[in-house]
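User: Structure please.
Assistant: Input sequence and predicted structure:
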Amino acid sequence: MSLLERLKAGIKNTKNIPFPGTDQEVTLRVLSNAELQEAHFAAERHFKKAEIEPGMTTIDAYEDEKTTQILFRALRDPEEPANGIASSASEFRGLLNRQEKDALVDEYTAFEMECSPRTEDMTEQEIGSLIEDVKKNPQTLGSVSNITTARKLIAFLVSRLPPSQKDSGSSS
């Protein structure tokens, strides 16, 4: 699948990965912005329910909970992709150890970058290849799921245009 196809697929991007330390596969999918926000809000609700105010001494635990909430939403049952791999975030949190979580975070982050790379992290060759794909099918740019990437591609293309000449023939 080309980069442009992955960009357009957005949250439809999925891949099967082995659950850390096992041969059992799980499906990993890229979350939408709304799902990411919900993961953040769920972490906040979790802390409020426990009557813990996020602060300097609890910031690491709060960030850890946000990560748990993201992974809970991103990991799916490969047999039934509509279902998560745990029935609740609480169950997920209780059954996951630190090494598994770290490995899953690395998988998710790498997959998200593969499907929706930050243009500032792309090489000139990668951007050039993406631009060539867009030139072949310009209407696809309008369906790129990551608006930030689309904006940066447009800005990149505009920056490559030669300066326009004014009526007097001057290019300044």
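The mean pLDDT is 81.
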